[in-house]
Predict the structure.
Amino acid sequence: MKYFIMLGLFISSLSAFAQTQTAVTSNGKKVLLKDDNTWHYVENSKQNSYYSKCNLGANFKESSGNEKLRKQVALENNCKTSDIIFIHMNEGPNHGIYTLCVEGNFMKYKKIKNSFIRVDKNKRN
């Protein structure tokens, strides 16, 4: 029994020595700092890479968005709804303007009554 306790303490102490830390650079990218004084960029998910492609800072908070528009944009751009980030929206009862980041590309949509129309000039192929 004493052997297992000592082995457990030894293994838990090893993990304390081999720790890494994460940091955020001034431009919002996450970096993994290793204990051997090396580092590399960390991409936790696709959406994090979209944040950096759209130049959104680490403290960016996504707008709640319009789920009907999110579904329409996903269909039009052949992507998942989770690949769409609402950057800014100005919405009224029958109108609205929406700025989105879709898979790392900026897009603008306009709402007229119950329809959404893409209004930016740089349409994706």
